[in-house]
Each structure stands twice: as C-alpha cells, then as structure tokens.
Amino acid sequence: MTNVCIVGLGHIGGSLGKALVDARKNGKRLYKVYGYARKPGVCRAALKIKACDAVFNSIDEIKNCDIIVLCVPVDKIAHFYKALVKIVSPETVITDVGSIKGFIEVEVKKIRGNLPHRKVADFVGAHPMAGREVSGINSADETIFKGATCIITGSVSANVKNEKLVKKMWQDTGLKIVKMPAKEHDFLTALTSHLPHITAFCLQGMYNDVKRKYPNIEKIVAGSFKSATRVATSSAAMWAPIFNLNRKEIIKHTEIFSKNIKKLSKVSKISNILRLQGK
Fold first, then answer.
1. pTM metric for this prediction
2. Are 71 and 99 in contact (CB under 8 A)?
3. pLDDT per residue as tens digits for the range 5-54
C-alpha cells in the first residue's frame, strides 16, 4: 500500500483524498491517505467525509510517506517543498497540483541548489485539469477526475521511477496523463484556462456595474452569459497568484484576444465575424 499525504485539504486536495481512499485493485486498497491542513476544523471535516484516513497536526509530523501532494496556492508550493525536504526521507516524492509550472520548477531547483550536497526528496510537477468553481473541503468530489487530464512536467532530478509513481497515482483517480515541458504547459494553459477565467471575471464585473443602474437585467440573463461567467465564482485568492506568476504567457494571449475584439467591433457582416472566429 502506498502512503500518500495531502497538504491542503480544499476542493482539489479533498477530492484527491476521497479518490485515493476509494482506489482499489482486486478488491484491495491501493493507498493509505494522510491529510494536513492549517485549520483543525478542516482536518475534522476531511476525516468525516473520508477524504483521508488520518491527519497530521503539524508538517513536522509528515514523515514516512511515499508521496506528498501539495494542494496549496501556487505561490506557496516552493515554500512547502523547502520545509518538507528538511524533514522527509530522500526516497519520498513530492508533487503538486499547481496551475503554473515554470515558476515552481525554477524555485524548486533553486532550493535544491542551496541545500547541502546530499540526496533529498525529488519533486515531480503535476497539474490535474479538473475541479469546479467551488472551494473548501465540503466541496470535495472524487468524480471530478474521471476522464479529465493531468499534465506531468517531470521530475526535477530526471528520475523516471518517481515520475511513474506520480503518474500511477493520478491514473488511479481516473485521470489521463499528458507529459509536456513546464514552459509549454504555461503557454497553453494561459489560453485554455487562465484567459477564460479572466474574461469570466471581467464579464461578471461588467454585469454587476450595469445591474446597479438596470436591476431588471437579472430577469433576462441568457444561458450563454451564465455559461461564460460560470467560473467567475471561483476563489479570487486562489487565482490572483496564478494570474500574477503566469502573467507573461497570459499577456501574449490577451493581446491577441483584444485585437480580435477590436476587429469584431469594426465589422458589419456576419460572415466576417464567423471567419474571424475560425468557423
């Protein structure tokens, strides 16, 4: 049985915990799941919904785990890695769920470069492209991984065995694996994930401004608007560091997006609009 510790028991961390607790092969459990969260109430809730088998009260207690999954905000991942490599076995594999990979990979390599010349826990970058516009342990749902994709950017020490260990864990939740470099990941997700969230936040902000003057707008909201703004209820605290740390790649796409919006404002024929949209 593989021992996994999930650091950060929010929507993704809790969902992963539930999925791993349920993972079976030939009727036998594949994972023993431990959890860690800063707030005791979150730990109690995680135990109640069976998102983990046991909890740690401090990161100093996190030892003897095969895999540690950092389900924390992207700007905190390197911080937790730095703390954990001083505690855990060099055989432990630390991974994450961050929506950006380049910044994290650079920071992890800096940390490893500043450590004494000894073997330390490896880091394997990962990003499960799953989840909903909700947050907190009580929103945990193990089904979010079924049929979704997990991007693996690889082991910072080029350890194939460690990559396979992390890959198998995510596959056991129902995810499909795609391997790609961190830089490519950040460029592509800036378009497929980050920009859609930005546009949703912007549309929702425009709606809120108009509603102050025209309250009746809420009676005529179309399905297309609801679809376009669905993710606008996502945690701003979680998305702010993502936007900040991947801003170079996001700006590349927003500039093209802005140019296309300006083009659309100048055309009069539907055929031209469709052509610009690639129809």
1. 0.91
2. no
3. 999 999 999 999 999 999 999 999 999 999 999 999 999 999 999 999 99
Asked whether 35 and 9 are in contact (CB, 8 A), the reply is yes
| Burial of 71: CB neighbours in 10 Å, binned 0-12, 13-18, 19+ | buried
- Structure tokens, 154: 């690889």
Q: Using CB atoms within 10 A of its CB, is residue 181 exposed (0-12), middle (13-18) or buried (19+)?
A: middle
